[in-house]
Design goal:
By secondary structure, this protein is of the alpha/beta class. The protein folds into two domains: 2-184, Rossmann fold, CATH 3.40.50.1970; 244-370, Dehydroquinate synthase-like, alpha domain (Up-down Bundle), CATH 1.20.1090.10. Helices cover 48% and strands 17% of the residues. It has 14 helices and twelve strands. Strands 1-2-3-10-7-6-4-5 form an eight-stranded mixed beta sheet, with helices on both faces. Strand 1 and strand 2 (9-13) form a beta hairpin. Helix 10 (246-257) crosses helix 11. The longest helix has 21 residues, at 211-231. The model has no long low-confidence stretch (mean pLDDT 94). The chain binds nicotinamide-adenine-dinucleotide (NAD) and zinc ion. Nicotinamide-adenine-dinucleotide (NAD) is lined by residues 46, 48-49, 52-53, 74-76, 79, 106-110, 112, 132-133, 135-136, 139-140, 143, 145-146, 154-155, 172-173, 175-176, 180, 183, 266.
């Protein structure tokens, strides 16, 4: 970790700086000022982030006052080839050259789309991430994965390309809704579970409405994500730690979209996935019963129960099996050896997944006594 300007510090993610602390936006100003004068900046956000966050960004980062903001629609649907087309056209109309810098001001949708547009426009121009959602700050804006959805399949087209920098300014969270905040908290809990027990305990104990209390925890989570990416930029081994809760969680998320009145946010599905996968870790004799109970209790206290039906189990397994990495009804999971220690590449059978889903279903129906 490198000390930056007073009030900021920088960690590296695959060689890409992630700047944390109250002076993060000052550090962005310094970086932009160090660029040649004729470099043009384009700030791209969605309708919410341009309204709530752009005035503060331009107030604190004078070189961006000249930049004409570009608005995209808010929400997952904007991760489309049509939105990319509109952005590529806009850049071409404005004669943006290869020196231009795109500033992605928003949550994961904005950084995923802008990262992809930046990776492809004129074969690649620089992108700076300024995340405004908690999910963006602790996860999406770090690590270089970008992309769009196609025919209902998430993130199927995209690249891995590191941003020129990520600047994490926690006060942007002031205007983020509670449900969106909890969406990001799920990833913070995961970071603690796979890497850092003290962080897990701190996130569990944090008053989430208090941004001052949350700030160091957001920074720690961003640092954990960056550290894991720095160790394994190409997703070959260590980065799989970040999959904890996601193998089952992704399938539950996809299943929930099939009945829109029950649609879950990603983090909400991951919270369920973490309960199921912690149970699998216990069942496989990796995790103690005490640790399992602590994890289940802490997550249940924070997230609304999501009723599952045995019919869902079959569909969830189908959705998991579509993932080509997991052929033959055997799945490779990231499980837990302890709170703070993940283990990658544990083989799990379809029957064990079904048992884990049953565990969750009964837990929601009957409460903790059934958690065996
Ligand atoms: N590339 C990666 O590594 C990675 C990792 C995790 C998630 N993702 C992707 O990120 C997306 C989810 O990200 P998200 O949860 O940030 O969703 P999002 O970008 O849709 O943001 C959620 C909502 O909050 C609004 N918002 C954002 N910041 C705000 C603020 N400060 N004040 C008020 N409103 C604000 C947005 O306009 C949006 O309506 C998904 O598409 C997911 O696939 C990518
Ligand atoms: Zn996730």
């Amino acid at each position: 970790m490198a000390a930056g300007r007073k009030g900021s510090r920088t960690v590296q993610a695959a060689g890409s700086p992630v700047v944390l602390g109250p002076a993060a936006l000052k550090a962005l100003e310094t970086w932009l000022n160090a660029e040649a004068r004729h470099v043009r900046h384009f700030v791209i956000g969605d309708e919410n982030t341009l309204r709530h966050c752009l005035p503060e960004l331009q107030g604190q980062v004078p070189p961006l006052r000249e930049a004409r903001p570009i608005a995209m629609a808010a929400g997952e649907r904007a991760k489309s080839i049509e939105v990319c087309h509109a952005l590529w056209s806009h850049l071409a109309d404005q004669a943006a050259d290869r020196q231009a810098v795109l500033v992605a001001l928003g949550g994961g949708v904005v950084s995923d789309v802008v990262g992809f547009v930046g990776a492809t426009y004129k074969r690649g121009i620089r992108v700076v991430n300024v995340p405004t959602s908690l999910m963006g700050m602790v996860d999406a804006a770090i690590g270089g994965k970008n992309g769009i959805d196609l025919d209902g399949i998430k993130n199927i087209v995209g690249t891995i390309r590191q941003p020129a920098g990520t600047y994490v300014h926690v006060p942007f969270l002031r205007t983020l809704g509670k449900r969106e905040l909890m969406n990001g908290v799920a990833e913070m809990l995961k970071h603690g579970l796979v890497r850092d027990r003290a962080h897990w305990s701190a996130v569990c104990a944090a008053p989430l409405h208090d941004l001052k209390a949350l700030e160091p925890l957001v920074q720690r989570s961003a640092e954990i994500k960056a550290g894991i990416v720095e160790e394994d930029p190409n997703d070959l081994d260590t980065r799989r730690l970040l999959n904890f809760g996601h193998t089952i969680g992704h399938a539950i998320e996809a299943r929930s979209w099939e009945s829109p009145q029950r649609a879950l946010l990603h983090g909400e599905a991951v919270a369920i996935g973490m309960i199921c996968e912690a149970w699998l870790s216990w069942k496989r004799d990796l995790l103690s019963r005490e640790a399992l109970d602590e994890i289940s209790r802490s997550i249940q206290e924070r997230y609304r129960p999501h009723p599952l039906d045995p019919v869902d189990h079959h569909r969830i397994l189908q959705l998991m099996a579509n993932d080509k990495k997991n052929a033959d009804e055997r799945f490779r999971f990231t499980l837990l050896e302890d709170i703070g220690h993940g283990r990658i590449n544990v083989e799990v059978t379809a029957a064990q997944v079904t048992a884990a889903l049953d565990h969750y279903r009964l837990l929601m129906r009957d409460g903790p006594k059934e958690a065996v």
